[in-house]
Amino acid sequence: MPDAMIEFRDVTKRYGTLVANDHLSLGIRRGELMTLLGPSGCGKTTALRCLTGTIQPEEGQILLDGKDVTHVPTHQRELGMVFQNFALFPHMTVQDNVGFPLMIRSVSKPERERMVADALRLVRLEGYAGQYPRQLSGGQQQRVGLARALVYHPKVLLLDEPLSNLDAKLREEMRFEIKEVVTRLGITAMYVTHDQGEALALSDRVAIMNRGRLEQLGTPEEIYESPRSKFVAEFIGLSNFLEGYVQSIEGRDMLVMASGLAVSTPALPAIGPGQKVLLFLRPNEVEILPQDAPAGTNVFAARVDKATYLGDTMDYRIALGQGVELRVQGDARRRYQNGDPVRLRLRRVRSWTVTD
Amino acid sequence: MTLLRAYLRGVREGWFILGYTLLLCLTFFIAAPFLMIVLRSVGKGWFGRLWLPPQLTLDWYRWAIEVGNIPEVMKNTLIIGAIAVAISTIIGIFAGWAFGRRHLPGKEILMAVILLPRMIPPITYALGVARIFYTADLVDTHFGVALAHVSVCAPYAILVLSATFESLDERVLEAAAVCGANTIKRFFYVVLPLIMPGILASMLFSFTSSYNEFTLTLLTYGPHTVTLPVRTYLAVGDGYWEITSAMAVIMVVPSLFILATIQRRAKPEKLIGGFKGV
């Protein structure tokens, strides 16, 4: 990849028999904010630690700004990093924490003070320079962490689950703050998280990892709208899955029999009757209609199993076919009760072939 | 029900009273001999029949200092203490780093070996030390006596510093590395300030163990290396109770000073733990 600021080339790292990174190849473009997203143990942290140089991959290369840094020690990699547990120096004031990378680089004192003040202004912490980390709230500490990471204008910014130790409301706020700072500076950033909400809200592109491999790489929209596998679909957003067999191909559509339901969906390339497929529906792509609604394609009789009021939406578990239960979300203004007979219209059904 | 509760409260208060009484007895039990020594050291013509000495004097202190040669003895004690503290702390830093930071195979066994000099009867251990020192010509040298003391000081230093290093947050060191600090700068700017409380605690513990050490000194000392506990013991042998008491009081003063420092300046548990997290 020519314009990559950070590049993983075939990086493999094993812990005993466990393969934490399995020939991982990934390029992060200049000025891009990319999220490495995945459940714990998917290898995202290993990839990050390979990039910081805390651990060494067994195979492959890591390039920073076109230079091979695979065997360069951490302190020479010119990185900025924000840690999950903040990792501030407890014995230093905010001023000294943020100024630490500059002191290490022997930046003159007046210059250092100016740069620290700039960095603190960037994270809206002017006036806190004399405080110690323990005197600050979690959110403030993380902003100090961000200032420390950015103060010497590193080539890349790494964020290791920076919001996990904060409470829910603060997390939302900080999301936008981080996004804004990164965008304003135009810095290349790699953001590691297991929180899909953060990933979708923040990223230019998302890399979803699973068992040490890259599962899918794309913009948040691509990832959400066209997940390439069940793993991705399950990990991002709410999903319903139905297993079935192709019954017939009708032009550009195919008819799939799944648990007694004949579902019409766009035909997959090179597919024939009898093949096993997995149908995938988002909860907001299913429409609940009154019982007397007219029949049609992908309209099925169903019954509300459990209705849950969520404020702006209603969350339903709806039974249909032979023992199928779908998770559906609907407008809270039009409510159905438990046990109500309804009709469901599947507005959009996507599918994958199943190979097993 | 109320009756039961009242009964239980009665029992509990009864326990409180009993507990306080016992605590008071214990305090007296600990304080009485000390009180005795203090009175003895300032009393004149006091033969134990009276509750308090009939006459007060500081003569015994003068005698202790002049005849007992306390300044010289104190100097020996402090020199030996300083050497023992220096060696123990250096051992403690390296061993503590290894114990606290790395997953050593057989860590428990190693720890047990280190603690051994503290577990076996001091005289047994001291005999062995003396035997070796006679061969190695280390008897009656400050360094030799200090080295013997290290065997009891170092375990403290290692224990305290292991705990300190254990509580050192790996992520903070990683942050320092990412910020551009190499190993040496990481040590001086981050590790050292963070383990400083632990080092101070270990130095205090080491110093008090060396300062109070009797058995090991008794078997390795000589005319040039008499320490305070040994000098006091010898004075008892000579039968001068008043002078001995004065020496004992002089000896206690630095210990009390250290205790007061620990109590006031830092919570001991904090010293041992270093900085826990942030």
Q: What does this entry look like structurally?
A:
The complex is a heterodimer of chains A (356) and B (278). With 356 residues, chain A is an alpha+beta fold. Chain A has helices at 44-52, 94-104, 109-122, 138-150, 168-185, 196-202, 220-225, 230-235; strands at 4-15, 18-29, 33-37, 59-64, 67-68, 79-82, 156-160, 188-193, 205-210, 213-218, 240-250, 253-258, 261-266, 276-281, 286-289, 299-309, 313-320, 324-331, 341-346, 350-353. Chain A folds into two domains: 4-235, P-loop containing nucleotide triphosphate hydrolases (Rossmann fold, 3-Layer(aba) Sandwich); 240-353, OB fold (Dihydrolipoamide Acetyltransferase, E2P), CATH 2.40.50.140. In chain A, 24% of the residues lie in helices and 38% in strands. In chain A, strand 9 (205-210) and strand 10 (213-218) form a beta hairpin. The radius of gyration of chain A is 25 Å and the shape is elongated. The two termini of chain A are 34 Å apart. Chain B is mainly alpha-helical and 278 residues long. Chain B folds into two domains: 2-57, no CATH class; 69-273, MetI-like (MetI-like fold), CATH 1.10.3720. Chain B contains twelve helices and two strands. Chain B has helices spanning 2-42, 59-66, 70-101, 107-119, 122-136, 142-166, 170-178, 183-212, 215-218, 228-238, 241-265, 268-273, and strands at 43-44, 55-56. Chain B has a two-stranded antiparallel sheet with strand order 1-2. The longest helix of chain B has 41 residues, at 2-42. The N and C termini of chain B lie far apart (48 Å). The A-B interface holds A 52-54, 73-81, 83-91, 100-101, 103-105, 133-134, 141, 148-149, 152, 158 and B 169, 171-172, 174-182, 185, 189-190, 193-194, 275, 277-278.
Please indicate the count of domains of chain A.
2
Can you tell me the overall shape of chain A?
elongated
**Major sheet size, sense and barrel closure of chain A:** 6 strands, mixed
Low-confidence stretches of chain A: none
The low-confidence runs of chain B, each spanning 5 or more residues with pLDDT under 50, are 271-278
